[in-house]
């Protein structure tokens, strides 16, 4: 592969991730707000629709989309990094296994590429997820009344000023574990679904892409959700990952690690379906315009 083609493919994968990240956030942000509130304040928020209604009544539509800007930044950064890394790691995997294309890799190899791409994304995702979670729960923690900023940039500055620059990486360990474990199933589930649904590798189908992406997203969150509960607790409260695990288990047992999973899975299927449609069609258009087959 020539250097120019490698650069173009890297740019294509990054651009596709950006488009997918934006699409996914604005499709499902209210359900993400609901998920975080149910995770961090389970004694107050126990049901999906009740949480959505209470948030809309007390905070308005803006409350449902609280944290949407850092969520966009998080998803754009995460998706751009993950899809860029997935494409580049796939090339390395092809070299190691003696395959000539991504499609020739085994499903396990593709899943491992996904896990490694998730590790890369965790470095970008942790600071933006921290700001998002703080913004989504500030009405519940009372930080709004105490003068804590309500905009993403101001919140980030506030965290750095009061807790130090390294505080922006608070929750990185559970985020790393969640991303690696989740992306193993995210890409693995997507690729497995494509093997079943698509008759031809060159076939183009929006609904099949959406269903494959939804399956991958649902598998990702279904398997990684308990780690996400711990991550949210760590970022909103002043506790360690082990402390968060103890708190969750002591208050609700094993069920506590699945608090909020309903809105999460409701969000995962359409959100990830939309993400993969945006990603795949961005790649398709880019390939036709700027990256002809060789």
Question: How is this structure best described in words?
Answer:
With 294 residues, the protein is mostly helical. The chain has 9 helices and no strands. The longest helix is centred in the N-terminal third of the chain and has 38 residues, at 3-40. The radius of gyration is 19 Å and the shape is globular. The model has no long low-confidence stretch (mean pLDDT 88).
Number of helices: 9
Based on CA atoms alone, the radius of gyration comes out at 19 Å
Count the beta strands: 0
- Largest beta sheet, briefly? none
* Ends distance: 10 Å
Short description:
The chain is an all-alpha fold and 294 residues long. It is built from 9 helices and no strands.
Short descriptors:
294 residues
Topology:
Elements: H1 3-40, H2 48-64, H3 68-97, H4 107-141, H5 152-163, H6 172-197, H7 206-236, H8 241-252, H9 261-290
Helix pairs in contact: 1-2, 1-3, 1-9, 3-4, 4-6, 6-7, 7-8, 7-9
């Amino acid at each position: 592969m020539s250097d120019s083609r490698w650069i173009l493919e890297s740019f294509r994968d990054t651009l596709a991730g950006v488009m997918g990240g934006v699409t996914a956030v604005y499709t499902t942000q209210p359900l993400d707000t609901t998920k975080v509130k149910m995770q961090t304040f389970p004694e107050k928020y126990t049901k999906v629709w009740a949480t959505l209604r209470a948030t809309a009544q007390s905070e308005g539509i803006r409350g449902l989309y609280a944290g949407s800007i850092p969520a966009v930044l998080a998803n754009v950064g995460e998706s751009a990094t993950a899809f860029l890394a997935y494409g580049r790691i796939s090339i390395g995997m092809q070299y190691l296994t003696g395959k000539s294309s991504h499609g020739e890799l085994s499903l396990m190899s593709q899943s491992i590429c996904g896990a490694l791409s998730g590790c890369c994304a965790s470095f970008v995702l942790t600071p933006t997820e921290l700001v998002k979670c703080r913004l989504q729960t500030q009405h519940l923690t009372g930080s709004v009344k105490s003068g804590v900023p309500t905009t993403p940039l101001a919140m980030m500055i506030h965290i750095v000023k009061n807790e130090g620059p390294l505080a922006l990486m608070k929750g990185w360990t559970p985020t790393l574990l969640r991303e690696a474990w989740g992306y193993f199933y995210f890409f693995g589930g997507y690729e497995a679904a494509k093997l079943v649904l698509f008759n031809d590798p060159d076939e183009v189908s929006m609904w099949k892409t959406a269903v494959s992406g939804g399956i991958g997203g649902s598998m990702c969150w279904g398997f990684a959700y308990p780690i996400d509960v711990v991550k949210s607790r760590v970022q909103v409260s002043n506790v360690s990952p082990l402390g968060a695990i103890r708190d969750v288990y002591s208050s609700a047992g094993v069920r506590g690690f699945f608090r909020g999973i309903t809105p999460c899975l409701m969000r995962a299927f359409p959100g990830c379906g939309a993400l993969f449609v945006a990603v795949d069609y961005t790649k398709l258009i880019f390939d036709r315009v700027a990256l002809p087959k060789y």
